[in-house]
Amino acid sequence: MRTRRPDDHYEIEALTKGIRVLEALEGTRWEPVGVATIMERTYLPRDTVDRSLKTLRLNGYAMQVDGKWTIGRRFMRFANSASRKEQVL
Length: 89
Description:
The protein is mainly alpha-helical. The protein has a single domain, classed as Orthogonal Bundle (Arc Repressor Mutant, subunit A). The protein contains four helices and two strands, in the order αααββα. It has helices at residues 13-24, 35-42, 46-58, 73-88, and strands at residues 62-65, 68-71. It starts with 12 loop residues before the first helix and ends with a helix.
């Protein structure tokens, strides 16, 4: 009989790091933040933060404004859609 592994055995570490970078964009008032701030908030190295941000930008979840980073339009659509659904529940 096969035993089921706990969920943490299925974690995709790169995805977890990307989520941490996305969450670091929140800040206090969604103000654009620099890479150094994201590194401080996530404890991730610069290379990981840079690659995560560029991947998020390519997919519309982050954007760069005057050298700093903030959430992208696709993330905003996703959040608005989730918020509307939550109001229905």
